Amino acid sequence: MKRHPSLHGLTTDHHHTLGLVVRIKRSKPEEAEGLAKLLLSTYEQAMLHHFRGEEEILLPAFATKVGDDHPLIVRTLTEHIRIHRLAGKVREALQSNAINKKLLTEIAQTLEAHVRFEENDLFPAIEATLTDDELHAVMERLPIIDHTVKTEQGITARYAVTLADPKPMLSGEGDRHEPDETTTR
To answer: The whole model's pTM is what?
Structure first.
């Protein structure tokens, strides 16, 4: 299904999250610590901003039409809370050297189910409920996420993504540039 442009950045984040989920699911137990660190880095540098955009901009716009207690809104917020709680458990497990594949699998399954719910249920309902002008107003208000990613090879790449337009901005001046060999996505 083709997404409204206002939701492209959020959908792009979902694709990145699913990529991480696949890595966790396919991983060996001895990779748990490295993947837990990658998961927490992704959570702190991208997911928190993603949730904030949904919670402060997208869901309130939707709620103006369907009410604050709409089941899709309640489920979204409940799942965000669960993901925050599980990320905290991963952080605690890392600090106490008790990280394990079971915990990573639990958060991976939770993230996958959440992404599928938003893509298959929440976003189509929002697209069907909000007018094109309202969706564009949402797009204008979604924040820019500043990503700093350190790859497994130790390469650090920094880029900014506005949730409304997932094309990276590599300069601080707001000019959009195509990624080069020093940039990862």
So the answer is: 0.78
Question: What are the distances in angstroms from CA 118 to CA 3, 71, 127, 146, 185?
Answer: 12, 12, 12, 23, 22
Q: pLDDT class for 5, splitting at 50, 70, 90?
A: confident
Amino acid identity for residue 12 in this structure:
T
Q: Please, what are the domains in the chain?
A: 5-142 (1.20.120.520)
Q: What is the pLDDT of residue 180?
A: 40
Give me 78's structure tokens. Answer: 């409940």
Query: Which tokens hold the place of 118?
Result: 């938003």
Mean pLDDT, the chain, whole residue set: 82
DSSP 84: H
Q: Which of 25, 34, 17, 19 is nearest to 99 (CA)?
A: 34
Spatial distance between the Cα atoms of 37 and 73, rounded to a whole number of angstroms: 30
Please choose, from the candidates 78, 80, 58, the residue with its C-alpha nearest in 3D space to the C-alpha of residue 125. Answer: 58
Torsion sign across C-alpha atoms 4, 13, 49, 66: positive
| Segment 17-23 long-range contacts (CB within 8 Å, at least 24 positions apart) | 17/42, 17/47, 17/111, 17/115, 18/111, 18/112, 18/115, 20/108, 20/111, 21/108, 21/109, 21/111, 21/112, 21/115
